[in-house]
Amino acid sequence: MSEHSGRRTTPGRLVAIVVTLLILLSPFLWLLQMSFKSNDQILQFPPPPIFTPTLENYISLWHSAFSASFVNSLLSASLSTALALLFGVPAAYALSRWAGRGKHGLSFAILVTRMAPPIAFTIPFFLFYRWIGLLDTITGLVLVYTSFNLPLVIWMMQPFFDTVPISLEEAALVDGARTRTVFTKIVLPMVTPGIAATAILCFLYAWNDFFFALILTRTNARTAPVAVVNFMNYEGWEWGKIAAGGSLVMAPVLIFSLAVRRYLVSGLTAGAVKG
Amino acid sequence: MSQGGIDGERRRFIAFALTPSLIVLFAVAVLPAIYLVVTSLTPFQLTTPGSATDFSAPLRNYGLLPGDPRFVNSLLVQAKLSFWGVLFQVLLGMLLALLLNVQSRFVEFARTFFLIPMVLPPIVVAVIWKLIYTPDISPLNYSAQLLNFTMPALTSSVDFALTAIIIADTWEWLPFTFLMVLAALQTIPEEYSEAALVDGANKLQIFWYVTLPFITPILVISGMFRLIDSVKAFPLIFLLTGGGPGTVTEVTNYYAYLLAFDTNEIGYSSAVTVVMLLLVAGVSLGLVWMGRRREAMA
């Protein structure tokens, strides 16, 4: 067959792809292997090619304040995801079904809120939180994360609602069903995969945040990314623990990313490419 | 008529579904923006009571900006970081996309792993590069020692610090341009390159005359997306160089952060942030304008 002549996989190209992948991922793998080494092994020169992996870094992390920060991250990321979905999913449906003139402007405004550098929001949020006493609280973090996840939900869910045929809804409406019923009983079940994918992406964005957590938390609500950096400042240069902390912070991200592989592209490029 | 009833009921539902989100977006995006602009008109410092509402010289902060060498320098540093970062990301992303633009189940599976740097938490990316750039434990220094060659301390050297940031930033965001270009490559009809092949064109000519014109718009658009986001390279700078040595890697975003949360100059920092926001908004508008033109052409 001639149809894929230009794109056939040759063994040479496969080797090139694998080599490129290894080079690209080597910094990441370096962190991973370091997390299983004792501090002595880390400082050994030349680095031993084969070593007995140890879990001591992970175990000592688990018994330190790091585990509390891990829980803080989990709480703030999941609560903000739930809130953003609660507000954003109906709004995305409304935008998808609304043929009004303001629709494009609104979608654009939503995208713009995602493009602004976080510092622009941090200063007002910091001052406001300081005033009403929300600094260093999970509630404060949840509010901030909801604010930047809401546009993402609206942006990502719209195409999913667009794929639900309107004729299906019209039939139910003609039969006398209310729009609310049509939405919850007919439309929502059809977009469940989209909601799942969007939820995971929201979770990841909140989980990955460093900047807001750095400024809006101190000790009580400190999240895992900030805690990792704190090792460097307060616990000396314990490279093994730092590497293990980094590995723990990225673990949920890697697992979830694999789970939503298919939707990852549209979520990460958030409107940069259509469809 | 019942049709009107249905329409009315539908309209009410749409308003009901949309309003809470609009209120939230207004509260968390529009109000802070207004507050930011208002604060930028004051000499606000947390330690000076009454300074938050002192509008006696509203444009004072903005007047100070052009004469502030650190601010002017920070714009230059940001320009350098953005230019080289975006250039490398677009070029390498394109090369990677060309390499992986094949139909094979294995390659499709492998693609996911190429995305890892982009999905990692940015602070973990910074930690990864911290491990690589710290002389005592750096694999670069091990290799250099084996080759009897002394590695300069990358992140604390005036000459290499910004390069070190650019390398890490390129590593982190290369997958983004790769994804976008790959998506564009996959829409090129197979017949084009086949026709060129029949006409005796070699691979380089096919790339130059068939592939490149096809993907140029997406190269520009993904480059602009990266340009807008390059302002956000905070964790890398925070962890690797802290803006230093001196102000060599102090981008505007970082300078605004230091002003507000280190030296307590909240009013002035807000003015810096407003200028930065305007610049980002300008680029964003350019992007939208290009998107429109592209849609019109299609």
UniProtKB/TrEMBL annotation, chain A:
The entry's keywords: Cell membrane, Membrane, Sugar transport, Transmembrane, Transmembrane helix, Transport
A Gene Ontology biological process in which this protein takes part is: transmembrane transport
Q: Which residues cross the membrane?
A: 12-32, 74-96, 108-132, 138-157, 186-207, 242-260
UniProt record similarity statement: Belongs to the binding-protein-dependent transport system permease family. MalFG subfamily.
Task: Please give the superkingdom of this protein's source.
Answer: Bacteria
Q: What the protein does?
A: Part of the ABC transporter complex MalEFGK involved in maltose/maltodextrin import. Probably responsible for the translocation of the substrate across the membrane.
Tell me one Pfam family matched here: BPD_transp_1
For this entry, the protein name equals: Maltose/maltodextrin transport system permease protein MalG
Which ranges carry the ABC transmembrane type-1 domain?
70-260
Q: Where in the cell is it found?
A: Cell membrane
InterPro entries in the record, alphabetically? BP-dep_ABC_trans_perm, MetI-like, MetI-like_sf
Name where it mostly resides.
Answer: membrane
GO cellular component labels:
plasma membrane
The organism of origin for this protein? Bradyrhizobium centrolobii
How does this protein sit in the membrane?
A: Multi-pass membrane protein
TrEMBL record, chain B:
Predominant location: membrane
Classify the protein's membrane topology as the record does: Multi-pass membrane protein
Tell me one GO biological process term.
Answer: transmembrane transport
* Cellular-component GO terms for this entry: plasma membrane
- Domain called ABC transmembrane type-1: residue spans: 75-287
Q: What's the protein name?
A: ABC transporter permease
Write out the entry's keywords from A to Z: Cell membrane, Membrane, Transmembrane, Transmembrane helix, Transport
Q: Name one Pfam family in it.
A: BPD_transp_1
